[in-house]
Amino acid sequence: MEDPRYSAEVLRRLRELPGSKPLAPAGRMILGRAGSVRDGAEVEFEFALSDEQIAAGRFRAYGCPHLIAAASWLTERALGWQRQRLLDWDWREAAEALEVPPHKYGRLLVLQDALLDAAGNWAGVTRSTV
Amino acid sequence: MKTVVYLDNAATTPVDPGVIEAMLECLGSSGDFANPSATGHEPGRRARARVEQARAEVAALVGATAEEVLWTSGATEADNLALFGAARFYRDRGRHIVTSRSEHPAVLDPCRRLEREGFDVSYLVPQPSGIVEPWQVEEALRPDTLLVSLMHVNNETGVRQDVGAVGRLCRERGVICHVDAAQSAGKLPLDFAGDCIDLLSLTAHKVHGPKGIGALCVRREPRLGLVPLVYGGGQERGLRSGTVPTHQVVGMGAAYRIAGERLVEDAARITGLRERLWQALARLPGTLLNGDPDRRAPGILSVSIEGIEGESLLAALSDLAVASGSACAAASGEPSYVLRALGRSDELAQSSLRLSLGRFTTAEEVDLAAGRVVEEVTRLRSIAPGWNGAGGD
């Protein structure tokens, strides 16, 4: 029997971790980071930029299955996004797509914070630190 | 249905075939199904004889007399009856209770309830090893101390307390000593009388018996008073009313008899398997054993694994039945209070895994489980930000 606490998509992403492979060296890289292991949830996004759009992404995450799956989902979704989209992104998109239960919503805010951090770094960071 | 390696024997165990056989003898119309209180007829007397035989089997395993064994629905009820029963019976003698922060909720929750009834409870902080030293208990005793409640083996860490030393200390001071032996009965030697224990909580399902049956051993010499929790019928010397479930009781008796016969052999084999598991997991950098390495029950291994969140590890290990101290995996939403009481950080409590072995666990299962844990930890650490494999608490 599958664990009813997680949607099939959450379990698939936890199993396969799409979006977690290291990026090939690219021209401009930005990093977005939020949360802490101490608080039980930490996320790091690395995005490769091309023509002021996200051309490739990679996530790293420490946390529950919902957080890891949402980070994976978001890494794939962000391809083609411009800076403003990172600023506009709302955690509810991931909650809906992955059927995240309400008591885990707080974890998704860490993703939103990481994207805001990435947006803040969009203009300045030029090399990967991941 | 996929095959799952069962390593959650501290939660419950599969019922031993010998126990099933004994229980079946008490269920059908040709068996000993009758109400054991209905001794006015032959079937009732046969059922009563089976119940009394089981009582003797349980008593024999724990060093009590049959008259001291009182049937309950399990260790939780036994703990409740011990704490509420003794506290309310002797409330005029004193209002102070001593226990530890790493007890099972079946003890801690009644203690909190008793605080609302005017009792004062001291919650001892275990040593980082998980051990509550007898001197800590001694220091906590007061002239008005009525009761000390300490578990024999901790359900999360497997750490074993020196309940004999605590029992003798309590006896010297005239304090009632209650021990929850849910995790130790049938796995470690127990001596109710010799260790000066006054109240001993037991259960069947942790030792390959059925769920829904347990016992409270109540000291008879000198007789200890208890206020009942359940009224109506006067069974079990008026201390626990309700029809005695013959098949359950017989199952518990059989489980305890079998456990007694196999105790030395099972303890040695399971300890060996636990060590094999620990040695395999200890190769992972940043893997910490929770609790004292030596003073522990045979079957419980608790580890904290740095750089890993317990709920994700548990979900990834869907082919293993194990337990986690992660906040998200727990109903309370809090990291394991037991591991926190041992001084583990929230982070390490979150990253804990309990693997508990039983009579039917094989070396192949242990090796498979160790391999899977190493595999998933390595995989999840590969995506953990900042994981550098440094280790250390």
Structure, described:
The complex is a heterodimer of chains A (130) and B (393). With 130 residues, chain A is an alpha+beta fold. Chain A has a single domain, classed as Alpha-Beta Complex (Sufe protein. Chain: A). Chain A is 40% helix and 22% strand. In chain A, strands 1-2-3 form a three-stranded antiparallel β-sheet. Chain A is globular, with a radius of gyration of 14 Å. The C terminus of chain A is likely disordered. Chain B is an alpha/beta fold and 393 residues long. Chain B has two domains: 125 residues, Aspartate Aminotransferase, domain 1, CATH 3.90.1150; 242 residues, Aspartate Aminotransferase, domain 2, CATH 3.40.640. In chain B, strands 2-8-7-6-5-3-4 form a seven-stranded mixed β-sheet, sandwiched between helices. In chain B, α1 packs antiparallel against α7. Chain B is globular. The model of chain B has no long low-confidence stretch (mean pLDDT 94). Chains A and B meet through α1, β2 and β3 of A and α8 and α10 of B.
Comma- or semicolon-separated keywords:
heterodimer; A: 130 residues; alpha+beta; Sufe protein. Chain: A; three-stranded antiparallel sheet; 5 helices; disordered C terminus; B: 393 residues; alpha/beta; Aspartate Aminotransferase, domain 2; seven-stranded mixed sheet; 37% helix
Q: With helices defined by DSSP (H or I, 4 residues minimum), what is the helix count of chain B?
A: 11
Question: Under CATH, the topology of the largest domain in chain B is which?
Answer: Aspartate Aminotransferase, domain 2
| SSE arrangement of chain B, N to C | EHHEHEHEHEHEEEHEEHEEHHEH
Give me the CATH architecture of chain A, please. Answer: Alpha-Beta Complex
**Proportion of β residues of chain B?**
5-15%
Regarding CATH, which class of the largest domain in chain B?
Alpha Beta
Structural class of chain B: alpha/beta
Q: What's the arrangement of strands in the largest beta sheet of chain B?
A: 2-8-7-6-5-3-4
